[in-house]
């Protein structure tokens, strides 16, 4: 069984159709990269997986998305629980204007965990998971804004991991970061793969090649090709994919 | 540049004028000009505080020894009392013997304290004029009685008025803040775009209604309502004022808080929701803390409007200058006092100047409030970046 299964997804912003009949499935504990030029629908697709697009007025979805076999757009789905299981890291680091500790503890607190010991334990584990512990252990009470961009982004990943999701969505997580921070995050993704199913949207072709097991190429709201990353980058079956990867457009 | 300089100069001049006039109250004696307070020539008392004079005439002090004088009961004498001691013939047809008779009465009554116009002062007067101290700032602020035209001594205690102002404003903010906050949350986070586009201009329109209309509404609707609900003899109470002011402060609080809430970055809200927080948790834990400075600014500006409001309060609070102990008692605010009394006060007189001093107090209160807004907004904008 696939961890994430989407069938015949059509998605509309008002009158504009952003996704055309996309069917895409992902296995557990793999990294899937979504690539394609701007406006191709890859971020839209990603945000469907934790129902983030619900926040936008006047949208319409047809088709089904199953996560762990459950239809996440069914009427009886608890969106808050879904988002707890499907964590998300955003394009720009977006820590809360709170302390480093409080940032990571936030997700635990809103999910009803009140035991201070458990919270502290999970905060520390999560920060260790993103290899940030050594850098922040002496300033947990300081504002998260005092960290560098790369550190902030790793903190945001730690924040997402703290509530123990099984799926992690990453929307261009390194696009606002310098190369060193980027490589740290990529290493992290590689390590997290053992425990989490990761879907990552990226503009950076090399990054997709480095971190992902499978790659999906989107163009104009359609899924053009979906295959093993190696195959996509060495012998793509579609002309458009090849043109994009070799940099002829996009 | 020029216009801002002109504005600043005007503001400074207004404030300067206000304080010059207001300070005059502390340079004058609180006894009406042309009147005298006189005691027997053997009385050792030279000077009295305004409050002591008041206590004497209220018969709270009945013996000179309470003031450090001789053991002698105090005998009050006002001009009109003269007819009790002398017949009309003795006073003369045109009261030409009036001064002499007053002199005579004062001379033969050792415990006397007499209050009369100086035109009745005999040429070789045998009594002794009392010195009255000027009003002190502390007495002005802490005095509980406001009878600026009382005889023989004007009572200039503004404590009741300050309390009245603060009571009404505090009550107003207590009512307006929860309602305003709820409305702001609804508008910024819950209402659909179309609903908001209709509601927001309507709420802003509320700010444009003249305050006398609010006062009228309060007088016709709220005052009778309070009277019936609480079974009071009169409905004109501090509560009525608070309700009317709360309604008036609402547009300020709602618009400013809503604007602040809408500046919460989408990234913050999404971060919270993506962590499994519910919509309400996100509002409570992200949106409100993020816009706390804006909400505080809105609330304080709302109070500022409430404190300075004149007309509506004047119409519904009953205007009794007594220290209110509950919100269900009539009270009187500083602006209402100025508005009601300035027309009757003699230009340049003590009463007139005391109203200006009230204006100074009001100015200082609102000034502090505006400084607080500055402080709060600055501190928070610093925190965010």
From TrEMBL, chain A:
GO terms for biological process: phosphate ion transmembrane transport. Residues 4-245 form the ABC transporter domain. It is found in: Cell inner membrane. Pfam families: ABC_tran. SUPFAM superfamilies: P-loop containing nucleoside triphosphate hydrolases. InterPro entries: AAA+_ATPase, ABC_transporter-like_ATP-bd, ABC_transporter-like_CS, P-loop_NTPase, PstB-like. Gene3D superfamilies: P-loop containing nucleotide triphosphate hydrolases. It is a peripheral membrane protein. Its main location: membrane. Keywords: ATP-binding, Cell membrane, Membrane, Nucleotide-binding, Phosphate transport, Translocase, Transport. One of its GO terms (molecular function) is phosphate transmembrane transporter activity. GO terms for cellular component: plasma membrane. CDD domains: ABC_PstB_phosphate_transporter. PANTHER family: ABC TRANSPORTER I FAMILY MEMBER 17 (PTHR43423). Part of the ABC transporter complex PstSACB involved in phosphate import. Responsible for energy coupling to the transport system. This is Phosphate ABC transporter ATP-binding protein. The lineage of its organism: Bacteria, Pseudomonadati, Bacteroidota, Flavobacteriia, Flavobacteriales.
């Amino acid at each position: 069984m696939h961890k994430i299964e989407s069938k015949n997804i059509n998605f509309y912003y008002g009158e504009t159709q952003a996704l055309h009949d996309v069917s895409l499935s992902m296995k557990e504990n793999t990294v899937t990269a979504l690539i394609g030029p701007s406006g191709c629908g890859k971020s839209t697709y990603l945000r469907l997986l934790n129902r983030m697009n619900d926040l936008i007025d006047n949208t319409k979805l047809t088709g089904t998305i199953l996560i762990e076999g459950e239809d996440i757009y069914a009427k009886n789905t608890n969106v808050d629980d879904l988002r707890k299981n499907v964590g998300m890291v955003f394009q720009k680091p977006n820590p809360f204007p709170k302390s480093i500790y409080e940032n990571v503890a936030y997700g635990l607190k809103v999910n009803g965990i009140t035991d201070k010991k458990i919270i502290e334990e999970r905060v520390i584990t999560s920060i260790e998971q993103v290899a940030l512990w050594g850098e922040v252990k002496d300033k947990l009470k300081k504002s998260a804004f005092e960290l560098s961009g790369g550190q902030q982004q790793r903190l945001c990943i730690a924040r997402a991991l703290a509530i123990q999701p099984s799926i992690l969505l990453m929307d261009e997580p390194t696009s606002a970061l310098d190369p060193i921070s980027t490589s740290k995050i990529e290493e992290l993704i590689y390590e997290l793969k053992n425990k989490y199913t990761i879907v990552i949207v990226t503009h950076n072709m090399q990054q997709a090649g480095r971190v992902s097991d499978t790659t999906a190429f989107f163009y104009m709201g359609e899924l053009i090709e979906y295959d093993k990353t190696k195959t996509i980058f060495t012998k793509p079956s579609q002309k458009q994919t090849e043109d994009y990867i070799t940099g002829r457009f996009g | 540049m020029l216009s801002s300089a002109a504005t600043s100069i005007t503001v400074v001049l207004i404030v300067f004028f206000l304080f010059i006039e207001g300070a005059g109250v502390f340079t004058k004696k609180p006894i009406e000009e042309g009147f005298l307070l006189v005691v027997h020539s053997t009385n050792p008392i030279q000077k009295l505080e305004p409050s002591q004079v008041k206590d004497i005439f209220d018969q709270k002090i009945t013996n000179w020894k309470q003031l450090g004088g001789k053991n002698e009961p105090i005998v009050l004498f006002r001009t009109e009392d003269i007819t009790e001691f002398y017949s009309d013939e003795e006073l003369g047809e045109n009261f030409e013997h009036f001064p002499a008779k007053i002199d005579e009465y004062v001379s033969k009554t050792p415990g006397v304290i007499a209050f009369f116009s100086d035109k009745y002062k005999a040429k070789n007067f045998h009594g002794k004029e009392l010195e009255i101290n000027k009003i002190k700032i502390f007495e002005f602020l802490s005095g509980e009685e406001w009878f600026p035209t009382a005889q023989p001594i004007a009572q200039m205690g503004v404590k009741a008025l300050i309390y009245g102002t603060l009571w009404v404003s505090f009550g107003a903010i207590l009512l307006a803040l929860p309602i305003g906050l709820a409305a702001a949350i609804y508008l910024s986070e819950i209402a659909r775009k179309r609903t908001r586009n209709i509601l927001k201009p309507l709420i802003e329109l509320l700010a444009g209604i003249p305050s006398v209309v609010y006062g009228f509404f309060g007088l016709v609707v709220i005052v009778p309502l309070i009277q019936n609900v609480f079974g009071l003899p009169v409905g004109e109470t501090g509560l009525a004022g608070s309700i009317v002011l709360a309604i008036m402060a609402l547009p300020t609080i709602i618009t400013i808080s809503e604007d602040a809430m809408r500046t919460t970055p989408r990234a913050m809200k999404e971060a919270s929701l993506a962590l499994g927080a519910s919509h309400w948790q996100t509002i409570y834990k992200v949106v409100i803390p993020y816009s706390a400075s804006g909400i505080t600014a809105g609330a304080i500006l709302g109070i500022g409007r409430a404190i300075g409001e004149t007309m509506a309060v004047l119409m519904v609070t009953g205007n009794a200058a007594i220290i209110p102990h509950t919100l269900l008692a009539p009270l009187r605010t500083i602006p209402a006092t100025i508005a009601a009394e300035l027309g009757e006060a003699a230009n340049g007189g003590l009463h007139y100047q005391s109203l200006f001093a009230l204006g100074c107090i009001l100015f200082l209160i609102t000034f502090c409030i505006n400084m607080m807004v500055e402080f709060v907004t600055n501190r928070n904008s610093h925190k965010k970046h």
